[in-house]
């Protein structure tokens, strides 16, 4: 169905029920497909990934036509940044296809058995990596997520139900057609990846309320979407909330490294979750570091907001930082700066105000580095490296479905492994207790 | 406080608020203690475990006196099985102490870094095993859980808030005093393990609603408790629901092994979650297996409930099995029996009616074994071994906090590793992107 049910005023509860029934049907099909996918051969999964890539390139024109329709529909409703993210072109379609081929090239994560050891009883116990089952992904604007998420779910032997934003509905359906084509070409179940057609919000609620058909939900998008999903989902959620990342420049920091890392962590990209939002500097090196660093940041167009000591050092032209600044994920050319007495105070600040995403220390002192790494309770903790490295590709995961700020299951960048689980396998020869 | 606030009629909302405030206070203390515990040396944690063991033995008399009080209070309210689980004696206290010493002897799970590899960018990326933070444990009747759970949380560098059942309140407090003593003796924070004193149910609700202070909840007890916790907890839950375990006897089974495994899986203990509840037998071997097996089970006092074909084979004295039987966790000397056409039908039955806990195949055929292991989506899948082996000690985990039927994070028997998470650690030398 392609009609937007939210437009059918006056019969809302009826249409809501219809949508629930549709989503339930997708769920049942996904559950069935998941069992076939769990047993699929690595070669068949890779063949499907290559076939989808081929279909994307072959159907470039129809994808671009669908995308043009979304862009036209969004022209008056969406801001420039959103339109930019929505837009596809030859290069972006080629990138999507290349992404699929790269996922095909990754090692197959499924079915491997590790730690298969004999126990005193005589049984042999190991753990086998297996798919989670059905993954629900709820995302916004970027149509390339449709292809990326499908690729990761497929490679990891899961079935997927994808629900993109209404603003990209036509683009997503055009990409979905290529995915179905690729799955069918490789003799894998077409229902292994289903893209929800209706753009009604009731579809999201329906997905969140069927734990019998969806094993885990991955929301990708703005904070509002993620909080909504986390609050209402009846199944586990792999989610990414704030990225309030810190760089702490220690007494024993190398000045050149410190400045290079701080500039890179703040300015390489402003809108990413692993961008530094607060800089902490040990007071013993504050003058030496902050004088040149503030000039570099100023030149890059970054606004500084400082604690009292920072303002005393750099002058009253620096805006004062309030508690709200310590908690803020700016996602913009703004940096909060605080001078601390020592590492303990820096760690205290990070644990109090941070979001447990990514935090770094710059130091030449190995004892400090060891202590910082132990004490900071974040998904990624770094020594002498830019926070911008916290990323699935940089970590060697090959691809990522997101970055998790949860502690259980997947933590930090989530690649194929995060879409799998380990079950115990036991081999005996008639063994009993 | 030791007064039972639920008895103070007429001021319920006020007392509820008081309890919430008390539990919040425990939460704040636990969060603080968790940071110290995360950095605690293995030697100090082990010293605390030994000191707690010593305190339990040294204070045996006061523990037994407290337990006698619980037994007296419960005499008219609790059934015999519950009273039996509640009762402590010299031997059980010695077992608790021995359990603590065994946990001390396990390898320390915290701080180890694995997979520390160089990336093309020049950074080195690895994963460090770290505690989860604060573990909340809500349990019923058995006072030994107080010591067992405390030991596992302590060894894994977490802080714990333990909430035992009201029927064991005095026993739990006596054990708690020993835990506090042991922690203090080893110079670890006494708040690392806190036992909730109030027996009011409002304390449970208060725990479930403070995700800022409790990182994960582990409910241990009856299904009602676990479902209540899973529904209301605002933090992740490591939970164990049903154990509807199957043994499938394949066409290619060795008859002697099949009978030995089936008898053991059903009769070694009736009340455990890894006990077989349904037996599936391939029709080609049904007569050969079921005739002698039914006699063995009959002698052991097990009631059989069979499908039509089973009743045709064994006679109408066998009760008919309904759909409700396939879904039932009897926890009793009752076994449902079904004759299936082939392995595919057995797997279909397990996936339809099972609880994804533990399922076994008995076969000499390696292709069947491989296919069964891949297709059955359970926490433990076994070949030629009794389902009764699904247990943390048998698997070599050293100890277990429970058996998880969830797919995310911990699956199957949960030992120390289930109470930890992995964070990424990155080492550079001034590296930027």
Give a verbal description of the structure.
- With 433 residues, the first copy, chain A, is of the alpha/beta class.
- Chain A has two domains: 5-232, Aldehyde Dehydrogenase, Chain A, domain 1; 245-389, Aldehyde Dehydrogenase, Chain A, domain 2.
- Helices cover 44% and strands 20% of the residues of chain A.
- The first copy, chain A, contains 15 helices and 16 strands.
- The first copy, chain A, has helices at residues 12-38, 42-58, 60-74, 80-86, 90-105, 144-155, 169-185, 202-208, 223-232, 255-267, 283-299, 308-314, 323-326, 343-353, 366-375, and strands at residues 113-118, 124-131, 134-139, 159-163, 193-195, 216-220, 245-249, 276-282, 303-306, 319-320, 334-340, 358-362, 380-385, 402-404, 412-414, 420-431.
- Chain A has a seven-stranded parallel sheet, with helices on both faces. A four-stranded parallel sheet of chain A has the order 5-4-3-6, sandwiched between helices. A three-stranded antiparallel sheet of chain A has the order 1-2-16, with no helix packed on it.
- In chain A, α1 (12-38) packs across α8.
- Chains A, B: It is found in: Cytoplasm.
- Chains A, B: This is Gamma-glutamyl phosphate reductase.
- Chains A, B: Keywords: Amino-acid biosynthesis, Cytoplasm, NADP, Oxidoreductase, Proline biosynthesis.
- Chains A, B: Belongs to the gamma-glutamyl phosphate reductase family.
- Chains A, B: It comes from Salinisphaera aquimarina.
């Amino acid at each position: 169905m392609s009609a937007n049910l939210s437009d059918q005023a006056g019969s809302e509860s009826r249409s809501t029920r219809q949508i629930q029934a549709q989503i339930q049907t997708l769920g049942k099909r996904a559950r069935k497909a998941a069992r076939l996918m769990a047993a699929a051969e690595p070669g068949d999964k890779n063949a499907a990934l290559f076939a989808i890539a081929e279909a994307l390139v072959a159907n470039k024109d129809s994808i671009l036509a669908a995308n043009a329709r979304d862009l036209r529909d969004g022209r008056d409703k969406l801001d420039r940044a959103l339109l930019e993210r929505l837009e596809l072109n030859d290069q972006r379609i080629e990138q999507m296809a290349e992404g699929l081929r790269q996922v095909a090239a990754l090692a197959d994560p499924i079915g491997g058995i590790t730690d298969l050891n004999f126990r005193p009883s005589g049984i042999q116990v190991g753990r086998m990596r297996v798919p989670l089952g059905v993954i629900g992904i709820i995302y916004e604007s970027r149509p390339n997520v449709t292809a990326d998420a499908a690729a990761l779910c497929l490679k990891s032997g899961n079935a997927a139900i994808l629900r993109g934003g209404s603003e990209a509905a036509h683009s997503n359906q055009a990409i979905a057609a290529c995915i179905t084509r690729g799955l069918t070409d490789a003799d894998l179940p077409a229902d292994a990846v289903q893209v929800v057609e209706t753009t009604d919000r009731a579809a999201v609620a329906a997905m969140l309320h069927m734990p019998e058909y969806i094993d885990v939900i991955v929301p990708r998008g703005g904070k509002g979407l993620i909080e909504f999903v986390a609050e209402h989902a009846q199944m586990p959620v792999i989610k990414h909330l704030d990225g309030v990342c810190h760089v702490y420049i220690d007494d024993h920091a190398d000045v050149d490294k410190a400045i290079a890392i701080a500039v890179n962590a703040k300015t390489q990209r402003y809108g990413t979750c692993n961008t530094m939002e607060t800089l902490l500097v040990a007071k013993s090196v504050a003058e030496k570091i902050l004088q040149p660093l503030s000039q570099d940041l100023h030149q890059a167009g970054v606004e500084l907001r400082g604690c009292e000591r920072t303002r005393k050092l750099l002058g009253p032209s620096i805006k004062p930082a309030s508690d709200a600044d310590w908690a803020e994920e700016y996602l913009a050319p703004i940096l909060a700066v605080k001078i601390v007495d020592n590492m303990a105070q820096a760690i205290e600040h990070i644990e109090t105000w941070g979001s447990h995403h990514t935090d770094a220390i710059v130091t030449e002192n190995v004892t400090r580095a060891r202590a910082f790494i132990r004490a900071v309770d974040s998904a990624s903790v770094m020594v002498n490296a830019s926070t911008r490295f916290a990323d699935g590709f940089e970590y060697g995961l090959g691809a990522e479905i997101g970055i998790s700020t949860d502690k259980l299951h997947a933590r930090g960048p989530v690649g194929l492994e995060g879409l799998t689980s380990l079950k115990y396998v036991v081999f005996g020869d008639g063994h009993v207790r």
